[in-house]
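Schema walk-through. Below, the input block comes first and the output block second. Nothing else is stored per chain. Lengths vary across the set, and this one has 60 residues.
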Amino acid sequence: MTTLLLALALMLVIEGLLPFVAPRVWRETFRRVTELGDGQLRFIGLTSIIIGLVILLLLA
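--- output ---
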């Protein structure tokens, strides 16, 4: 459970960096993402999952 909470905390820190450091860039990027189609968003999500699993397998 501790490892899961540490992973969540690290994810929140990383996710918060861009809006904190460059809010305009973050806002523009977020606007572009909202304009993507469902298929494109699913592909991005699937790619993120695969990359995350590969990293977990390499580090575990």
